[in-house]
Give the backbone structure.
Amino acid sequence: MQGIVLDTVFKAGQRPEQGVEYENCAFRGCSLAGAELDGCVFSECRFEGCDLSMASLGGVSLREVHFEECKMVGLDLTRCNRMGFSISLSGCIADDALFFGLKMAKARIAGTRLRGADFSDCDLTGAVIADCDLLGAAFSNTVLTGADLRGSTDFTIDPGDNRVRRMKISLSQADGVLAPLGIEADASL
C-alpha cells in the first residue's frame, strides 16, 4: 500500500492513484474511463457522475462503495478483491458489466441500465434490483433467493437454472421467468 487518503473530495480532472487506500472519499464527475486503478482500496466511498468504463480493477477492494449516476460500461468487477466486496448502484449505466461469481447478497441496485451484464454464478440472495433495464443480462446458476426485481424490465431468468425461491417480480414481467418453462402468462380475465 502506498498510503491512505481520508475524507477527501475528488473532482473532475483528478484521479485516484494505483495502490492507494481511500476511506470515506467522494469522487465527483471524475473521468476514469480506462484508468489503471489496480491495487486500490475504496472503503465507504462514493462515485457520483463518474465515467469508470473499462477501468482496470485488478485486486481493487470495494467495501461499502456507492456508485450514483456513473457510466460503468464493460467494467470487469470480477477482477476485484472479493474479501469485503460490497457495492450499490443508483441511476448508473453498467451495460456489459461483469459481476460473474461475485457474492452480492443484499446488494442495492436501483434505476440502473444493465444491458448485457453478466450475473452468472452470482449470489444475489436478498438483493434489490429495482427499476433496472436488464435487456440481455445473463443469469445462469445465479442465487436469487429472496431477491426483489420488482420494476425491473426485459429480463429472462430460467427457474430451472437459477435459485429463485421467494424472488419478487412485477406481474408485468412474469413472462421473463415463465417463458423458459414454456408457460405463457395472460393477465386478462
Summary: The first helix runs from residue 175 to 178. The longest strand covers residues 65-68. The two ends are 63 Å apart (CA to CA). The chain has one helix and eleven strands.
